[in-house]
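Hi team,

Filling in the usual template for the complex we talked about on Friday. All components are listed, including any nucleic acid strands or ligand strings, so the model treats them as one assembly.

SUBMITTER: L.P.
PURPOSE: interface mapping
COMPONENTS: two
RESIDUES: 307
SEQUENCES:
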Amino acid sequence: MGRAVMSFADRNQGEQGFTLLELMIALGIFAIVLVIITSVLGGQLRLFGDSNEERRNLHEARLAMEAVVDELEAAREDGYKLDLVGDTISGVKLDPDPESVPLVSTVKSAARIYLDDNELIKNGQLVSRNVSLRFSPMTQDDVDLRIKDVPIIKVDDEFHFIKIEIEAGDPTQSGYALTTIVGTASRLPL
Amino acid sequence: MGHTRPTGTQGFTFLEIMIGLGMLLFFMVFAVQMTSVAARLAADNRDELQRVYWGRAAVEIVMEVAREKPDVFFKNNPGFVEIEDLTVGGFNMLSALDQKVLASIDAGTIEVSIVSD
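RESULT (copied from the run log):
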């Protein structure tokens, strides 16, 4: 304690203290450390922001995919055969009375699921935001299936599949894309 | 005695500076490692969800083909078959799935399952 008091007293008398060079070196080291910390911290914050954005997009894409797939499965369980007309998947019930029902559409319509300004609506309720849908038909040239000792089985025109692609956000950045394939046949017993 | 400063001088010894820099380096490496682990976990999570949907698509396709052509499908193995190749639009689905896809038929009931190797 006594030494500290002496030290301050000495400094006041001008006998001790930092030179300008020492201060400049200290400030320089401090600035370098600050720049390093800031860049690391900045990178972490950017990554954190991207992760949050990606997680949000993942959540939106998953909700949208589950809503679409559930709807199509429910229609097939009800005896509908699915068809792809333009950008709309609709169901046609063959038995007992033919009935066409729009199920999923990428344009606002009477569909039970539709996309309105990148918002997916199901039965009037908002399911997910910032998503886009794309439906593609799978033809006989698209699917090859091979089993041991059996030639490649080609899917023919009697039955086919629809590829569903859902994007949330921009997949080239922190967006998220999901793809699956659904069959179109009715789930009623053969 | 190694930490004793020379009489009348102030400041850090060389050893103290090295220890300080080492700790700083350690924490920086630690922070970078944590960042890369977090990024890898996020990528795994992303792949895992898409794998779930590839699995779903594989079951869908195998089930439909088996229902449509059961005589061809179960010709050589009436009870149980393993899918050796499933290509959709040039895309190898089994590679993406990284699991086995099996199908069986029992009294007209077709079952498709996905199992780990």
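MY TAKE: The CA atoms of residues 20 and 26 of chain B lie 10 Å apart. Chain B touches chain A through 39 residues (CB under 8 Å).

Thanks, L.
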